[in-house]
Write a structure and sequence with these properties.
The structure is a homodimer. Chain A is about 30% helix and about 25% strand. With about 550 residues, the first copy, chain A, is of the alpha/beta class. Chains A and B meet through helix 11, helix 13, helix 14, strand 27 and strand 28 of A and helix 11, helix 13, helix 14, strand 27 and strand 28 of B. Chains A, B: Its EC number is 3.1.-.-.
């Protein structure tokens, strides 16, 4: 039997922001026992994934080793860490472990997919550990922008790994545990093989600001606001939601929660005992019965999501509530790169309604949940690992994080999705390259990233679509003219005649001079008709369109 | 004959950033003589305008009054001010006026569309004026991020209007005229009816930085850079391009220009005498013959445009040049909201190549060309107008600009695209609402914003497409089964059978029980087949797809 090895394999999150999924293994080569850390999702966009509902990590590699998986550990309840549990559980079939709040959210997701709540086990924090095959895994409380975030201590005979999960260093986070320097330092006392560390904010040079600095600013803001106020933030940021609600309460405003995730998150935090001082809330129906200046709406949709409460209020109405001149809308959030267009659209819609919009451009009403560079330095110094492996970040973040580690004399390992790293020796090395990718949840179907489905949709969006129908008789002679239908194309082009007429004429002309063997050969005929259709649209409208050719033969 | 009135009508740029197009009129109501200020474009995106090449203002209102137009005045040579001249000239048919550099660029565009260069007249700066019908128009030099930008003084019997165009207040802009406070103050001495003023940076509270502060920072940066350096900025920012090239020259680096617009802009600036101290450049072929540390590439594509030089270098190669580990790429630019994804993609591609990327996140290597709030205040105080009409900005910018004017005791007028403002009386008022919009240049065809062409493309991108073909015989009986082809849809769904098979079976089942009068009625039959196809895809894959039905009847 071959020697055991300790390995690390990111399947998502390393080379991107979102869709976190990391694998650790220990055992004989290619027969390691495995654990999975996080099963997150990422979100589609019109540029690259039109029509897609959700993006999941491709877990084909894991599925093929289903029997080797001893557990799935979820660090915290953000969608990009827990969002795929319901979608992928069946294919992995291992028990899920998380702390209480995260487990509460995970169970809701499991239930939506018809799985038992028992598939999720609630774990107490460090020093308790879970034994999973050759691993002992402990959940070490760490501060982030959602309650009960945890770094993981992953012990095996191969040595200790510390996996930070997403974090910031906040000694006064409002809700949830403060960052405990001594606790984190204590993890390092017998040496740490590798620190696998959050990297998203590596380019932010300032020290991180505490969540506790936001509440007072919001309170000041509410002190001067007139009319109705709506505030949006990530619903999962319970500390923020609580700060806003308490500030509202002190300003004599009743809080109304709008948006499904806002209600669900507060419910989960209350159920798990994290939130016992949340002001009582009013229903959307009650809002009309209270003077506007006594209302604060706490709403979802800080990223401009089209169907969320913010967007619907900006469209004019949500749950019977309409904002108007003299009201104020507060973004207690930052816009994630790529979401600017949606957020700006909302801002302008409110502007048209006469609603004042206040955002975080002055740096008062939001703080990041991720460690900036000085905090990353602190973490590295506390853990003092043999190697630092940056995770959760785009390539540029991981690369920069490696650079700063190496500048500090710590070995850095740049491992992106699919790079299996062997941590057994003194120097981590790439053991193998695994094929990874994304799985698209498209409607109710899971579609592979490279199946061509989305590529075809993008092509139709860029080029429009032509359907060519042709009927041939028993002698392979065309029965009448070919028939064309277009979608997503201008009605006429250069010839100033209807585009379909020009197409049909050109195709008919071709058929008139086509050889018998072409007419008898479906593949050949289809290819020719497509080529002509594309040539004609290019000449008429300057576009090579997508073409579907349907040839019917009477027999 | 009715009394003459002075009117202002934005057709583009008021309520958006980009696509500037403003109309001024003087004369009897509805028979005013008109002038047009700027004919700009804006750029498509995948979210709302997939496949579109360029977006132009809808000038239907102007075209219907072609004989009333006395001139088209272009303030400066940015695409969002001059980009539509070639596309729309024929429909407006009025002489185009601009200063030398802008005229040079405008003539190139006219030539591309086969128009005479004589259609563009070069105008000397203020105090010279052009007489256009009842108007006298003067080009007043103003600082911006492109040479020879001008504000316009528009005099008529209705009073003086000052139209700033895009501007910043820069007393040391490097290339082109410095902002001249005395000159601008002098325009106001007999009173100004309305100041029509740039608004894009109204939310930037800091004083604007001079272009002249950028060069020294770039020089410092080049002093420490190793390997090959590539720098990108807007090619039209001649001062910046010159600063970079001169810094390179001093650092012992030869400059190579990459990208069509980079070469064209430098050519235009040289032809018009604005640039007589640009270092000599080397060709892309020469780059290979020079040590990497002696090369600086000046490249297009600062906004991540897929086909530009930056994106192609990030993809691996452009004009035979490949960047590699140890090289540096500098964004001497800011990312326009909405372009983040493209820019970030390039950054990560370079990271993968080992190329260091430096951007303006530290605030060193770029300054905005637009007036921040303090500069807007200065302009308003210099001109001291009866009314301030904010232009060039989204609704939120215009609204904020009105607010600060009114807080300063100046009447503010919020006029978005399509709002015709009568400036004749003491209080500007809305005279009429004009239908406005956008015209899409799609391939070689101009498509109206509401023609449904783009809507259909977006639907196909979101929902995929099914073609249903059915042949009926002389007795209206189906000849064989209906035939389905899908594009942009998963191959199978819930039934675990091919989607097309399920579709065909469901459609065939319907035909089996369809009444004769349905089978005889194309419209009815098509509607039913579409409904069934959509119902089936919804059940199978969770999506209601777009459907094209082709019914052929043998007769």
């Amino acid at each position: 039997m071959s020697k055991s090895r300790l390995m690390y394999l990111p399947l998502g999150g390393a080379g991107e922001i979102g869709m976190n999924c990391y694998v650790y293994g220990y055992g004989p080569e290619d027969a390691e026992r495995l654990i999975v850390v996080d099963l997150g999702v990422t979100f589609p966009d019109m540029d690259s994934t039109p029509g897609v509902d959700l993006i999941l990590p491709d877990v084909a590699w894991l599925e093929a080793r289903k029997s080797q998986i001893d557990g799935i550990f979820i660090t915290h309840a953000h969608e990009d860490h827990v969002g795929a549990v319901g979608h992928l559980f069946e294919r992995l079939g291992a028990p899920i472990y998380a702390r209480a709040f995260t487990a509460n959210i995970a169970r809701r997701k499991m239930a939506e997919h018809g799985f038992s709540e028992k598939s999720v086990t609630t774990v107490a924090p460090w020093p308790e550990t879970v034994t999973a095959g050759p691993f002992k895994v402990g959940f070490v409380p760490i501060s982030h922008s959602i309650p009960e975030s945890s770094g993981l201590v992953i012990d095996s005979k191969g040595g200790r790994i510390v996996h930070t999960g997403d974090f910031k260093i906040d000694t006064n986070p409002g809700v949830g545990e403060a960052f405990d320097h001594d606790l984190w330092k204590s993890l390092a006392k017998d040496g740490v093989k590798a620190l696998v560390c959050d990297s998203t904010n590596v380019f932010s040079m300032a020290e991180g600001r505490s969540e506790s600095t936001v509440g007072p600013e919001i309170e000041k803001f509410l002190g001067t606001a007139k009319g109705m106020v709506a505030a949006t933030t990530f619903a999962s940021n319970i500390a923020r939601v609580r700060s806003i609600a308490q500030a509202a309460d002190r300003a004599g405003r009743s809080v109304c929660l709008l948006g499904r995730s806002m209600r669900r998150m507060i419910e989960a935090a209350t159920e798990t005992g994290l939130l016992d001082d949340f002001p009582s809330v009013i229903s959307p129906e009650d809002v009309a019965n209270i003077p506007r200046e006594n209302v604060l709406l706490l709403v979802t949709g800080s990223q401009g999501e089209r169907r969320a409460a913010s967007a619907q209020l900006a469209n004019g109405k949500y749950m019977g509530i309409t904002m108007k001149e003299g009201d104020t809308f507060l973004f207690s959030s930052k816009t994630i790169p790529g979401n600017e267009r949606g957020v700006i659209r909302i801002m302008n819609q409110f502007s048209e309604m006469g609603v004042d919009v206040v955002d975080d451009s002055g740096g008062l009403y939001h703080v990041s949940g991720h460690a900036n560079r000085p905090d990353l330095d602190t973490m590295r110094e506390l853990i003092n690992p043999q190697a630092l492996i940056p995770m959760h970040g785009e390539h540029r973040h991981l690369r920069e994080h490696v650079k700063i580690a190496e500048a500090a004399g710590v070995q850095g390992v740049l491992a992106v999705n699919g790079m299996m790293i062997d941590l057994s020796g003194n120097k981590p090395k790439v053991a193998e390259y695994i094929e990874t990718g994304r799985t698209y949840l498209d409607g109710t179907v899971k579609v592979g990233q490279f199946d061509g489905v989305i590529r075809d949709r993008i092509r139709m969006a860029l080029n429009g679509h032509v359907t060519v129908t042709l009927i041939l008789d028993e002698n392979d002679d065309p029965l009448g003219e070919p028939w064309c239908e277009v979608m997503g194309l201008p009605e006429q082009g250069r010839s100033n005649a209807p585009l379909v007429d020009v197409l049909e004429a050109d195709l008919d002309q071709f058929l008139g001079r086509a050889e018998d063997r072409t007419l008898a050969d479906d593949d050949k005929l289809e290819k020719e008709l497509r080529t002509i259709a594309r040539r004609t649209t290019m000449a008429e409208i300057g576009k090579k369109t997508e073409v579907t050719v349907v040839i019917s033969r009477l027999s």
